[in-house]
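Data card: per-record layout.
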Amino acid sequence: MANINDRGLERELQFQASRSGGAGGQNVNKVNTKVELRFQVENSELLTEEEKALVQEKLGSRINSEGYLQVVCQTERSQLQNKELCVARFYELLRQALTRQKKRKATKPTRASVRRRLEGKKKQADKKASRGFRGDF
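The structure for this 137-residue chain is written out next.
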């Protein structure tokens, strides 16, 4: 799989800016710094059908009813920084969704680790047993 950043997905991204809450003083009330990135997965020309299916399966909770994958950023005080942050998060999400997880190979614990575990259990049992009251019977 080619590097996802090299495909030119930027041309399929849509951005929308609005006013955000939080820190910023009076600036918050008059400047549109919150950025919302939208990417329509189903209509993408740069993703294969297999990749689209993977993205929809793994990022389904982030895709709205209209089929847009949404990423919202409003942590920074400038629109440009929020836009760059959105794009970085978008690529990270895509990278995670398109990375196949390795199959887990079942293994057994080593003989030495089993011995260490049992010795630890025996020590703990002896410690607790020595705490008990032993009267004259």
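Known properties of this structure: The first helix runs from residue 27 to 30. The first strand starts at residue 13 and ends at 18.

See the next section for split statistics.
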